[in-house]
Model the fold of this input.
Amino acid sequence: MEKRQVSFRCNTLKSTTQEVETALEKALIRYIKLDFPKNCYLIDRSFSESDLWRLDIYKQGKIYIQSISSQVPVHFFSQKSPLRILDACAAPGWKSSQLSELYPDAEIYAFEPFKVRYDKMKYNLNKLWCENIHTIHDEIRNISKYISEENFFDIILVDAPCSSEWSLLYNNTKFLEAWNISHIQKNYKRQKHIIDDVLPYLKVGWEIIYSTCTIAPEENEWIVHYILCHSPQLELQKLDFKNNIYIKYIEALKKFEKYIYKTEISEKALRVIPSEYSEWFFIAKFKKWHLLK
Done:
């Protein structure tokens, strides 16, 4: 597959779509503004990321280069007004900054345990003027050190660390040579732990979204199946979206090898399929209806 067209989003905390489009036109960069995801742009295939790097709107944090698929998950949260948000696996800050734009009055907590990734996240969020985000350099399993019961979260995003198999679609031979089934097994265990760590901190009546950029069922449908089996207080929500030329969805898998998943998973969760515009992504959304008895 050819390298995908470069996509970015307008950072409305610092700029407007009008200012961004004026800058692109002045630089003679051809573009398309998408209806969905919100404030998302594609530049013509004859241009590259380096053409955006040279622009003041990029240097000043008025735009942020981010794949279309990666921009999608946060838009599936209900458009209520959350007071407190958790981004459990936040670096490098792509989705944290989106949440900051969508919910400027909310208090956002962004966790990242690895120092290099944490520093990159801090830099990005400062550049983008995300002033309502608390960045925390720690493992999410230590969340109780920072959050009290009266400060539980209205929405939680778990954009989980994964085996990143979307890279396969860039003809990444080196990635293939390094790939091993043990990576998937390790990530599956880690993802389960993250889910177990954050679920107690979700308020009743509110939502959690789980997403990855891998095609591995073990890291997608298996995790959703695990959540449904172990968290009866949660209900999987149906994600409705009409396919368009830039981003296409298919239902989640019903089974993989000898494993058969709960029927509702294929009916409600989504897989973004790769194209010349977007990459693999998996998205599932849950709502918490009651406390665990």
